[in-house]
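seq:
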Amino acid sequence: MAYLSVWRKPPSRSVWAAVTEIVLVVEIVSPGSEAMDSVTKVREYASAGIPQYWVVDRDGAQTVTLHRLGGDGSYEECARMPLAWLLQTAPGDHLD
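struct:
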């Protein structure tokens, strides 16, 4: 599994950052971690209050599922698209 985190402001030099500063987590699903990425981590990131969680599947299109934190504190799927299409757009188009 690989992941990318985006913070509101640059993290300090320490290894740890406050979870409240993370605005986006992007994960690439590795073989064998599908259940962890699509069930467990979705709940953990939502309970931490991370506004956006994107999951890149390793299917033929490398489908990206964009989840946005809803008013009830759980993620709502707001879009699903091929990675190639997503990469042709500006990241700000998909962030609040």
